[in-house]
């Protein structure tokens, strides 16, 4: 872990607000942000997604406590705007944290609703707030529906979601966060937020860890190093058996890395539209790479990442 004076001399505190459906990869992204000395996490807002809302809240509270941080965790929407909740407990475990027996209950979140917290903090820090979303976009959409001008107050917005190019993870072409609540995603992607979209393709290409790579991180030997690897137990089995990867992948952490150090990920301007249909047309991020629709680009879509820089940042955050 490096100290503040080891950061470049002209560093300044940056304000973050993070929306998450806290499960095993979200938790690693939270650790990275909470352990970054030049980032002030104003709040963590929680949404149902990987696991039911109450569990995601407990997972976020546990992670904040493990980091020794004092950051409000606020519960939000327990289901998508219009659709029933579909969780990913088969991917992350029933508790979302690898079912390794962590004590993930009886912690109290901060009172209030996540959508109000998003509105209050973004308005309070207008022009100097980075919004990072790690789950379905239900909370963010609700905040924008209540206060559309909020989109202009956010200085940077990093969204883990969608597919920049290639195949999906929940259907052949859809990614889970967008697919769970496509209506919310459509609202967010058409809101005017300065979106940088980190698709799941970036995760499986640049943020996959096989057993040896995972062991190298765990061998750092700190409680956080062991935590960030051990909670991937269910995800590891799923990734190898179902996704065909060499080990677990970390979509939320590489998105957080892009927010912490923008140079780690390259982006290109594209028009991105969201489909809100059913079956194979549910929750697609339709990326107009060639501009054939003639619609003006409104999203920066991630195209590649610097794995070495990402892994170095992850290692520092748990050292
Ligand atoms: O598709 C990957 C995304 O869905 C990640 O955010 C993961 O945590 C799940 O929410
Ligand atoms: Ca997530």
Query: What is the C-alpha radius of gyration, as a whole number of Å?
Result: 18 Å
Number of helical stretches of at least 4 residues:
13
Order of helices and strands: EHEHEHHEHEHHEHEHHHEHEEEH
Mean pLDDT: 96
Structural class label = alpha/beta
| Spatial arrangement of strands, main beta sheet | 3-2-1-4-5-6-11-9-10
Q: How much of the residues is beta strand, in percent? A: 15-25%
Low-confidence runs of at least 5 consecutive residues: none
Q: Separation of termini?
A: 5 Å
The strand count comes to 11
The main sheet comes to: 9 strands, mixed
Bound molecules: alpha-D-ribofuranose, calcium ion
What's the helical proportion of residues? 25-40%
Shape: globular
Jot down its keywords:
nine-stranded mixed β-sheet; globular; 319 residues; single chain; binds calcium ion; binds alpha-D-ribofuranose; two-stranded antiparallel ribbon; alpha/beta
Question: How would you characterize this protein structure?
Answer:
There is one protein chain. With 319 residues, the protein is an alpha/beta fold. 37% of the residues lie in helices and 19% in strands. It is built from 13 helices and eleven strands. The chain has helices at residues 24-34, 53-66, 89-92, 114-124, 138-146, 176-180, 182-189, 200-206, 211-218, 223-230, 233-243, 251-260, 307-318; strands at residues 14-20, 39-46, 73-75, 130-133, 156-160, 195-198, 208-209, 248-249, 265-276, 282-288, 299-305. Strands 3-2-1-4-5-6-11-9-10 form a nine-stranded mixed beta sheet, with helices on both faces. It has a two-stranded antiparallel sheet with strand order 7-8. The model has no long low-confidence stretch (mean pLDDT 96). Alpha-D-ribofuranose is lined by residues 21, 23, 25-26, 49-50, 88, 134-135, 160, 169, 175-177, 200, 251-252.
